[in-house]
Amino acid sequence: MVLLSERIRAFIAIDIEDPVIVGRIVNIRDAFVGTGAPMKPVEDYNLHLTIRFLGYIPMSLVDDIHRIMESVEFKPFKMRLVGVGAFPSVVRPRVIWVGVREGADMLKSIHEQIERGLRRIGIRAEKEEFVPHITLARLKGSRNIERVVKLLEEFKDVEIGEVEVKCIRLKQSILQPSGPIYKTLREVCR
User: Fold this and answer.
1) pTM recorded for the entire structure
2) Are 9 and 173 in contact (CB under 8 A)?
3) Which of 128, 40, 134 is nearest to 85 (CA)?
4) How many other β-carbons are positioned within 10 Å of the β-carbon of residue 27?
5) pLDDT value at position 178?
6) Domain topology for 7-189
């Protein structure tokens, strides 16, 4: 029995499914893990680009969010992954990510359309500016940080490749001690 008030942790994303691209991203991620800095790497099968993190939402909103996703105007497009960076900055890295060069404008358009729809159903606008990226790892301390900073400099212009974007997905994030499990609840493909 599902309670009407049941809340789930959710986000809207684009999955990275091309095994060649996943392999390249994993090699870069593993180079950062190899620095010995304390970090939580993203699992290979969880690599994605978050369009909008929703946080904990009532399960009853899933269909409304799906309708918003269906209303988004986009055609399949190429997303070119280039460069590695960090939030809040490369000298004070907390989140290590792969950037998007071509396709970023389309991703921003998708984000804005979703954002407008979410506001209509009472979900507050994000405070942060949307920066398209794929998270590789989250740092959990500053040991060996100089090695991480050096690698960020080394990989700042690395070419990873192109991914064709055809689908956006509403995902549930089920937190586990071993790491999150992502489950697709709804998808919209063009």
Assistant:
1) 0.93
2) yes
3) 134
4) 10
5) 83
6) Cyclic Phosphodiesterase; Chain: A, (3.90.1140)
